[in-house]
Design brief:
The complex is a heterodimer of chains A (about 170) and B (about 400). With about 170 residues, chain A is mainly α. Chain A is built from 8 helices and no strands. Chain A has helices spanning about 1-15, 20-35, 40-55, 70-90, 100-115, 120-130, 135-145, 145-165. In chain A, helix 3 (about 40-55) packs across helix 4 (about 70-90) and helix 5 (about 100-115) packs across helix 8 (about 145-165). The longest helix of chain A has 23 residues, at about 70-90. Chain B folds into 2 domains: about 70-250, Clam (outer membrane lipoprotein receptor (LolB), chain A), CATH 2.50.20; about 280-395. Chain B is built from 9 helices and 21 strands. In chain B, about 35% of the residues are buried. Classes of the chains: A mainly alpha (about 170), B alpha+beta (about 400). The interface between A and B is large, with 55 and 48 residues.
Chain lengths: ~170, ~400
C-alpha cells in the first residue's frame, strides 16, 4: 500500500514539474529511440518531440496505477513506429552507428539490426531491463504487465534475436 | 524445459545468478545486443533540448474573478481558522501562502444512504493566484459527465455530456447552475467556515471541525500536520448523509502546461456562445472598415491577395475581419469570439509559443479547417483557413503584427 502511495506521489510530482520529469527521463528515452531508429541524432530529435508532447499532455493524465514514465515510453514507441513507417516509404534505413573494426563491427551491426527488428514490446523489455537496469517488477509497472509476462517477453526477445542472427550466419555470444 | 520455467531461469541468468545452459546462452546474447545502447547522454544535450522546449511564462494578471479563488481560499480559510485556534502560529503568512497556489484536487462524493445519489468524482486544477480552474465531473457508472474551464478573465467554458454541448460564457452567472462543480464542495465548506460557529477538537493526528448546526451540519477531518482537509461528512439529524473524500489535494510546485487550463477535445460537440446578456452570439452584419480598425494583421497583402477589412457586428459585441482572398481570414476580437473561430475551437488543439511569447492555440479540423488563435495583451487575433497547407496558419500566426510594423 505504501509502495502504491509512493508511486502515486511520484506520478503527481512528475506531472507538476516538467523540468524534473525531463531531466529524469530524457536520457533513457534517447537511448531507447537510438536502438529503435539506429541513429543517436535522430533519437535526440524525436525525444525532443516526445517531451514536447509530454509538456502538453502530462498535466492532464489521470492516475491509473502506472508511472508517467510508462506514458513517455508509449509515446516514444508510437513516434518511433511512425518515423520508421515514414522512412520505409522514403528511403532505405540508415546504416547503424557502430564505430569499430572489421568482423566485430559487422557482428555488432547485425546484432543491433536484429534487435531493432524485434517487435516493439520485445525491444522495450530488453531496453528497460538490460539498458536501464530496472528490476523486473519495475519493468512490469512501466509496461503495465505482470512480472511473469515480462519475463516471457524477454525469453521471446532472446529467441527472436537468436533466430535472426542464425539466419544471418552470425555466431552469438 | 517449459517456457515459463525457462523465462524465470533466463531472468535469474540476467541477474547474474546460476542458471541452466540455455538460459545462460540466451542471457549472453541479450546482454551483447543491449550493450551498444548503454551510452551516456551528455548533460549539455539535456539542457539544450530543455531550453528549446521551455516556454516563457505568461504574465501574471491581477484581474481575479470573484468566485474562483474561493476554492483555494478554502485551504487558506481552513488554515487560518485552525491556526487562529493554535497559539503561536503565523496565521496570516500561512493562509496567504496556502491561497496563492495551484492545487490539484480530487474529490469523491458518496451518499451514505443507498440510492440517494450516484457516487461522483470531481477532479482538476484550481489556481487561486490567477483565478482559474479546470475540473471534470465523473459518474462511476457513466464516465465523464461534465467539464468546466474557468479562465483568468472570468469567462467560462462548460461541456455537458448529456447534451454533448460546449457552452462559452463571459461569466459563471450566465450558466444554468453557475460554476458549482468548480467550487463545491469546497465552496460550501468555506462559506460554512466563514459563517463561524465551528467547533474544533483534536482527534489523534487530525482536527475535527464541526460546522453549521440545527438539522444539517458538516464535520471536516483536517490533517493536523498539513492543515488540509481530507474528508468532509455531511450530516442530517446526526446521521451521515454523504461523505466527500479529498483523495488528492496537492499544491503544484512546477509550472503547468497551458493545456492544464484548456478544455479537452470533445469533437463533434455542439458549440454555443453566450453574450453578457446570456443570448447566443450571432453575426448581425458586416460593413467595410478603414485600416485604422485593425489591431493585428498579416500586412496589406498576404499570399498575393490584398487585405479586405470589414467590421463585423456580433450579438453582444463586434470584431474586425481581414480577408486575404477567399481562403485566409484574420479576425481581431475581444471577449466575444466570432462564430467561425468559435466553431473551430472544439477541434483537437496544439499549443505553442510564438516569437515574443504570445501563446498560440492551433486547431486542426478533419475537413481541412485550420485556426490559430493568438492571445495578445491588447486583444485576440485568429487566423482561419479552410483549405490551406498544413502549416499555413501556424506560419501566419507568427507573422501577425500591428499595421505599420515591418
Amino acid at each position: 500500500m505504501e509502495e502504491g502511495l509512493d508511486a502515486y506521489r511520484t506520478f503527481r510530482r512528475e506531472q507538476g514539474d516538467f523540468e524534473a520529469l525531463f531531466r529524469a527521463h530524457y536520457p533513457e528515452i534517447v537511448r531507447y529511440l537510438a536502438a529503435r531508429l539506429g541513429s543517436r541524432d535522430d533519437a535526440h530529435e524525436l525525444a525532443g518531440d516526445v517531451f514536447a508532447e509530454a509538456w502538453r499532455r502530462v498535466p492532464g493524465l489521470r492516475w491509473r496505477g502506472r508511472p508517467v514514465r510508462a506514458w513517455l515510453y508509449r509515446v516514444a514507441s508510437n513516434m518511433a513506429a511512425d518515423e520508421l513507417r515514414r522512412r520505409s516509404r522514403l528511403a532505405p534505413l540508415p546504416e547503424l552507428e557502430v564505430a569499430d573494426d572489421a568482423d566485430a563491427a559487422e557482428d555488432r551491426i547485425a546484432v543491433a539490426r536484429a534487435l531493432a527488428a524485434l517487435p516493439a514490446d520485445h525491444q522495450l523489455v530488453v531496453h528497460l531491463r538490460l539498458v536501464e537496469g530496472l528490476p523486473f517488477d519495475e519493468v512490469a509497472r512501466v509496461m503495465g504487465r505482470s512480472v511473469g509476462a515480462c519475463q516471457m517477453l524477454m525469453l521471446r526477445a532472446a529467441r527472436g534475436l537468436r533466430a535472426s542472427l542464425a539466419a544471418e550466419g552470425v555466431r552469438d555470444g | 524445459m517449459a517456457d515459463p520455467t525457462l523465462a524465470r531461469d533466463l531472468a535469474r541468468a540476467l541477474d547474474g545468478e546460476p542458471a541452466g545452459a540455455e538460459a545462460s546462452e540466451l542471457a549472453a546474447l541479450l546482454l551483447a545486443a543491449a550493450e551498444p545502447s548503454r551510452f551516456a547522454v551528455a548533460d549539455a544535450a539535456v539542457e539544450r533540448t530543455l531550453a528549446r522546449l521551455r516556454r516563457p511564462p505568461r504574465p501574471r494578471r491581477r484581474v481575479v474573478p470573484a468566485l474562483v479563488p474561493l476554492a483555494t481560499a478554502a485551504v487558506a480559510a481552513l488554515a487560518a481558522f485552525v491556526f487562529l485556534r493554535t497559539p503561536g502560529s503565523h496565521v496570516q503568512a500561512r493562509a496567504a501562502r496556502a491561497a496563492d497556489a495551484t492545487f490539484f484536487v480530487v474529490e469523491d462524493v458518496q451518499a451514505r444512504r443507498p440510492g440517494l445519489f450516484p457516487a461522483t468524482s470531481v477532479s482538476g486544477y484550481v489556481d487561486g493566484g490567477r483565478g482559474r480552474a479546470h475540473v471534470r465531473i465523473f459518474l462511476r457508472s457513466a464516465g465523464a459527465v461534465a467539464e468546466t474551464v474557468l479562465h483568468e478573465d472570468g469567462s467560462v467554458e462548460r461541456w455537458l455530456a448529456s447534451s454533448d454541448t460546449t457552452t462559452f460564457a463571459p461569466s459563471c452567472d450566465l450558466l444554468p447552475g453557475g460554476c458549482g462543480e468548480v467550487l463545491d464542495p469546497f465552496s460550501f465548506y468555506v462559506r460554512a467556515l466563514e459563517s463561524g460557529g465551528a467547533h474544533v477538537r483534536r482527534a489523534g493526528g487530525q482536527y475535527l471541525l464541526t460546522l453549521g448546526g440545527g438539522r444539517v451540519e458538516q464535520v471536516a477531518h483536517v490533517d493536523a500536520r498539513t492543515y488540509l482537509p481530507r474528508l468532509i461528512e455531511w450530516r442530517q439529524d446526526g446521521r451521515v448523509v454523504a461523505v466527500v473524500r479529498l483523495t488528492s489535494l496537492e499544491r503544484q510546485h512546477g509550472g503547468l502546461s497551458p493545456d492544464a487550463w484548456t478544455m479537452s477535445d470533445h469533437g463533434g460537440a455542439r458549440v454555443v456562445q453566450l453574450t453578457a446578456a446570456g443570448r447566443p452570439v450571432r453575426v448581425l452584419g458586416a460593413r467595410p472598415a478603414a485600416r485604422s480598425a485593425v489591431r493585428r494583421w498579416l500586412g496589406p497583402s498576404f499570399g498575393g491577395a490584398a487585405a479586405r477589412v470589414e467590421r463585423v457586428a456580433l450579438t453582444g459585441g463586434s470584431a474586425v475581419r481581414i480577408a486575404y482572398g477567399e481562403d485566409v481570414v484574420v479576425w481581431n476580437y475581444g471577449r466575444v469570439v466570432p462564430p467561425p473561430v468559435l466553431q473551430a475551437r472544439s477541434l483537437p488543439a496544439k499549443v505553442f509559443t510564438a516569437p515574443g511569447g504570445a501563446v498560440v492555440h492551433a486547431y486542426f479540423g478533419r475537413a481541412g479547417t485550420q485556426v490559430a488563435v493568438v492571445a495578445f495583451a491588447d486583444g485576440n487575433a485568429a487566423v482561419v483557413s479552410r483549405t490551406g497547407a498544413n502549416d499555413l496558419v501556424l506560419r501566419a500566426a507568427q507573422l501577425l503584427r500591428r499595421p505599420g510594423s515591418p
